[in-house]
Amino acid sequence: MDKRVLKGITWDHSRGMVPLQAAAQRFGELHPNVQVVWEKRSLQAFADYSIEKLTEIYDLLIIDHPWVGSASVTNCVLPLNEYLPEAFLKELQQHSVGASHSSYYYDGGQWALAIDAATPVASMRADLLLQQAVVPQTWEEVMVIAAKGRAAAPAIPIDLLMNFYTFCRAHGGNLFKDGEVIASGTGVAVLNTMKAFYGLLDHRFFSMNPIGVAEAMSNTDDYWYCPFAYGYSNYSRRHYSGQLLTYTNVVTFNGQPLQTTLGGTGIAVSAYSNHQSVAVDFAQFVCAPEWQQTEYILTGGQPGYDFGYDDVLNNQVCNGFFENTRATLENAYVRPRYHGYLHFQDAGGFYIREYLKGNILSPQTVLTKLNALYAESLKPEAIL
């Protein structure tokens, strides 16, 4: 019998690639007539090349949940609730970390399974921070560290937009309501809060994503603390990078924990695959509790399901990452997922960054730009 070869596409980092390669290896051992080959693209390449086009090339795709509104319109990936056992999906829902599983359910379809979970959490070089200060518990204490020049945070446009959402929630605002991204008064307060913080950071962070920040923190002694960046348990594992990072839940702002913006990824099956049933079987295999709570974590993954989150060994391996950040993940804000939203997300953070860098002087100008983008995104036929 000829071997069936399935192609998958994921993102270019150990967290996104190695656990899938390990699962593919074992799946192939269990099914000798099947080979699953994973390829990788940079995070920017994912932004620049539409998932719809990728579904014509790959059988399995790692996607972000804000895309599922487009999936429900284009039907280029399978609604997995029509292909997987109901009992299996119910078990995943019951064990979802926060909204990870449900974030891929939209308009009647489960367009992916939450293979990976992440939200911005705090991280530190405990060996440096605890010599000089205590672990921050409040935003005011974060600002003290920032004023010393020892704070880090990703500040490329997409991460600034995610943190904009966080501070909108922290200021009591309702996002994407009544035809505007955020009420004007709240939006101005948010942008001023962000400018006060980012104005204290090294400007090189305006070109860094969360991976870049983790690399800078673990490979230099320049920074003690990052208040929010998408968590990477790899950097809390011994010998992965230069120095160990310790991850914790985020601080409070006005007495309440910051609500950061849910990230993570899901595994989807292309509707154009010539091996749909095998691809569905692989998705079920890699998201099953037996694999998620053991090999998936031990090979560098961060499951979207909690099967291994309380395991003593898993937490020993990654310096308490899962138990120390779970509360923030459980509380994470879910972005809009309507068809067209990604047009807003792809461009919105640019205006926030320009304001924080001083190239746009008025916060109201930023809000006007964001509202115009939002209006455009609600008419996807004009932009897609």
Task: Draw up the topology in text.
Layout: E1 4-11, H1 14-30, E2 34-41, H2 43-48, H3 51-54, E3 60-63, H4 68-74, H5 86-94, E4 105-106, E5 109-110, E6 113-116, E7 120-124, H6 126-132, H7 139-147, H8 157-170, H9 184-198, H10 210-219, E8 225-230, E9 246-248, E10 252-253, E11 256-257, E12 265-269, H11 276-287, H12 289-298, H13 312-317, H14 321-330, H15 341-356, H16 363-377
Parallel strand pairs: 1-2, 1-3
Antiparallel strand pairs: 3-12, 4-5, 6-12, 7-8, 7-9, 10-11
What do these coordinates show?
The protein folds into two domains: 4-118 and 262-330, Periplasmic binding protein-like II (D-Maltodextrin-Binding Protein, domain 2), CATH 3.40.190.10; 120-260 and 336-382, Periplasmic binding protein-like II (D-Maltodextrin-Binding Protein, domain 2, 3-Layer(aba) Sandwich), CATH 3.40.190.10. Helix content is 43%, strand content 13%. It has helices spanning 14-30, 43-48, 51-54, 68-74, 86-94, 126-132, 139-147, 157-170, 184-198, 210-219, 276-287, 289-298, 312-317, 321-330, 341-356, 363-377, and strands at 4-11, 34-41, 60-63, 105-106, 109-110, 113-116, 120-124, 225-230, 246-248, 252-253, 256-257, 265-269. The radius of gyration is 21 Å and the shape is globular.
Describe the structure concisely.
With 384 residues, the protein is an alpha+beta fold. It has 16 helices and twelve strands. A five-stranded mixed β-sheet has the order 2-1-3-12-6. Strands 8-7-9 form a three-stranded antiparallel β-sheet.
What string, H for helix and E for strand, traces the elements in order? EHEHHEHHEEEEHHHHHEEEEEHHHHHH
Strand arrangement, major sheet: 2-1-3-12-6
The N- and C-terminal alpha carbons lie at a distance of: 42 Å
Structural class: alpha+beta
> What's the CATH architecture name of the largest domain?
3-Layer(aba) Sandwich
Content of β-strand: 5-15%
What global shape is seen? globular
Helix content: 40-55%
CATH superfamily of the largest domain: Periplasmic binding protein-like II
* Low-pLDDT windows of residues: none
- CATH C-level label of the largest domain: Alpha Beta
Mean pLDDT figure: 96
The tally of beta strands, per DSSP, is: 12
CATH topology of the largest domain: D-Maltodextrin-Binding Protein, domain 2
Using the CA coordinates, give the radius of gyration: 21 Å
Number of continuous helical runs: 16
